[in-house]
User: Which sequence fits this backbone?
C-alpha cells in the first residue's frame, strides 16, 4: 500500500512539474504574482461604484503616476498577473477594474456596450480622484482605452492598445467563442468550468458569453475620423498570429493622431500572458518606466 501511494505521489508531482514547465513562462509569472501579492508591503485599496444598476469592482495598488489596466472580454482583472507586480514595484499607482458583468462586477440593468464600459471606467476614476492616467487595454479593454481617448481626452495621458480592433471587420475569426463540441463530453464540461472561472461570471457565464459574442459582431464602430480625433500617444500592439488582422492594426496605428504599431512575433491574441516579457518591454519603453 505504501509503495503504491508513494508511486502515485511521485506520479502526481511529476505531472505537476511537467505542466508547470510546459506552461513556462506563464506558470512562472503566475507563481511570481502570488508570491508578490502575499508578501508585498503595499496594501491594495478595493472598492465598488454603483452605476446604471451595477456594482463595478476595482482594485488600486500603490501611489505615484497612475496607470489603468483594462482586461479583455470574458476574462477579469487578474489576467494582468504578468504586469501588476513590476508596474507597482516601478512606483506607479496601478488601477484594475472588473468590467461590468465580469469578475466581481455585476451586470446591472444596462445592455452591455463599449460605451457603458467606458462610462463605468470614468466613474471609477472619479471615485479614486484620478484626473489623468495612462491606460493599458487588452482586446475589449483596448477598445475601451481608445474610447476613453476619444470621449474623455483630458483624462488620458498615453494609451497602450493590445489586440484591439476599431471595427468588427478587423477580427479575422468569427467573433464567437462557441466551439462545436458534442453536447455531453468531459472536454465540454472542463472547458465550460474554465471559461466561467476565467470570466468570473460563474453560473451566469453562458448568458454573459452570449451577450459579449453579440457585441463583438456589431461593435465597435469607430471611423477614421474618430481615430484621428484620438490625440493621446498610442502604442498599438498585436500578435503576429492574432485574431486581429495585421492590416487592420496597421490601419488603426496610421489613422490615430499619434499612433505607433508593434507586432510581437509568434504571439496570438493572449500576448499579455503568453508573451509577457516582450510585451512588458514595449510597455516600459513607451511609458518611460523601468520594468
Assistant:
Amino acid at each position: 500500500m505504501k509503495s503504491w501511494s508513494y508511486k502515485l505521489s511521485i506520479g502526481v508531482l511529476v505531472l505537476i512539474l511537467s505542466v508547470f514547465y510546459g506552461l513556462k513562462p506563464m506558470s512562472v509569472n503566475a507563481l511570481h504574482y502570488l508570491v508578490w501579492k502575499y508578501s508585498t508591503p503595499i496594501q491594495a485599496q478595493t472598492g465598488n461604484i454603483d452605476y446604471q444598476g451595477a456594482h463595478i469592482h476595482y482594485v488600486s495598488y500603490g501611489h505615484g503616476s497612475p496607470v489603468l489596466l483594462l482586461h479583455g472580454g470574458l476574462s477579469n482583472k487578474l489576467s494582468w498577473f504578468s504586469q501588476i507586480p513590476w508596474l507597482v514595484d516601478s512606483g506607479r499607482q496601478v488601477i484594475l477594474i472588473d468590467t461590468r458583468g465580469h469578475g466581481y462586477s455585476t451586470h446591472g440593468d444596462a445592455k452591455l456596450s463599449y460605451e457603458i464600459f467606458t462610462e463605468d471606467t470614468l466613474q471609477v476614476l472619479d471615485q479614486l480622484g484620478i484626473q489623468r492616467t495612462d491606460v493599458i487595454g487588452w482586446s475589449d479593454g483596448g477598445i475601451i482605452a481608445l474610447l476613453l481617448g476619444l470621449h474623455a481626452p483630458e483624462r488620458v495621458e498615453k494609451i497602450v492598445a493590445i489586440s484591439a480592433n476599431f471595427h468588427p471587420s478587423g477580427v479575422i475569426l468569427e467573433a464567437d467563442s462557441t466551439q462545436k463540441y458534442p453536447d455531453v463530453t468531459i472536454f465540454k464540461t472542463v472547458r465550460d468550468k474554465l471559461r466561467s472561472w476565467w470570466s468570473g461570471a460563474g453560473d451566469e457565464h453562458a448568458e454573459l458569453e452570449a451577450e459579449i459574442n453579440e457585441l463583438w459582431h456589431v461593435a465597435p464602430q469607430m471611423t477614421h475620423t474618430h481615430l484621428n480625433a484620438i490625440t493621446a500617444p498610442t502604442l498599438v500592439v498585436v500578435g503576429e498570429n492574432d485574431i486581429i488582422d495585421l492590416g487592420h492594426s496597421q490601419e488603426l496605428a496610421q489613422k490615430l493622431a499619434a499612433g505607433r504599431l508593434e507586432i510581437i512575433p509568434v504571439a496570438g491574441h493572449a500576448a499579455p500572458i503568453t508573451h509577457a516579457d516582450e510585451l512588458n518591454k514595449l510597455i516600459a519603453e513607451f511609458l518611460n518606466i523601468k520594468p
Observations:
- Confidence is low (pLDDT under 50) at residues 4-22, 175-182.
- The domain at 46-287 is CATH 3.40.50.1820 (Rossmann fold).
- The chain has two domains: 1-39, 46-287.
- Residues 33 and 81 are 6 Å apart (CA to CA).
